[in-house]
Design goal:
Shape: elongated
Distance between the termini: 84 Å
Helix content: 55-70%
CATH topology of the largest domain: Tetracycline Repressor, domain 2
Strand content: under 5%
CATH class of the largest domain: Mainly Alpha
Number of strands: 0
Radius of gyration: 24 Å
Number of helices: 10
Structural class: mainly alpha
Length: 219
């Protein structure tokens, strides 16, 4: 008599399941709802119950993905940083660079435009009630951006010896952000006047290290 077990085909190993589309959609809905809430509420006013109501999903689902508000905000900040990186990925308009300061002017103009269009980003990065973890993450990300901005300058100009213990381009970004923060808190956005003041402030700092006339790189 034939052994049925011997004839049974071995079970194929089941592939590891990917995250379900429903879960990804809910996570995205939570983050999008938080962005919308930050259009009318400050960071300190946001609660997970508000987010659940805005996203039209059960509060338990929000807690499943983000047990605390801070975890939700930190994830949203990472998305803002990714958008900052994308902005910096855009090529510079070489034809508009006649002086080293034009590089920072172009970069700052992009970030100002982004901030002006996204209130949730202003409140997360420039707001008065910034979570300490977000503030630290912003500082670390500025360091990364500063390294990239230095590389942009090095592509065009022969830079003089610069301090090794800190990144002057990262500090310049932080100086500009401080001015934008004042504008956001006073006027609810970055006004054109304060945008120019932020650019002026970061360039004034950089001029302490970069001479007005730098030699161009040999191409």
């Amino acid at each position: 008599m034939t052994d049925d077990k011997a004839l049974a085909a071995p079970k194929a190993q089941q592939p590891q399941r990917k995250p379900q589309a429903r879960s990804l959609e809910r996570r995205r809905a939570i983050l999008d709802a938080t962005r919308k809430l930050l259009e009318t509420n400050t960071v300190s006013e946001i609660s997970l119950y508000q987010v659940a109501e805005k996203a039209e999903i059960p509060p338990s689902s929000v807690y499943h993905f983000f047990p605390k508000v801070d975890a939700l905000l930190n994830t949203l900040v990472k998305e803002v940083f990714a958008e900052f990186d994308t902005i910096l990925d855009q090529p510079l308009k070489v034809e508009n660079i006649g002086h080293w300061s034009d590089i920072m002017r172009q970069i700052q103009a992009r970030y100002i435009d982004y901030y002006q269009q996204h209130q949730y980003a202003r409140d997360l990065i420039l707001g008065q009630h910034i979570v300490s973890a977000i503030h630290h993450a912003d500082y670390l990300h500025d360091e990364q951006l500063g390294c990239r901005i230095r590389h942009f300058h090095e592509q065009f100009y022969q830079l003089p010896p610069l301090p090794e213990e800190y990144n002057i381009f990262a500090i310049a970004l932080q100086i500009a952000d401080k001015v934008y923060s004042i504008s956001h808190q006073e006027f609810g956005n970055i006004t054109d006047t304060m945008a120019q003041e932020g650019i002026n402030a970061c360039l004034a700092y950089l001029r302490q290290y970069l001479p007005e006339n730098m030699c161009l790189q040999n191409n």
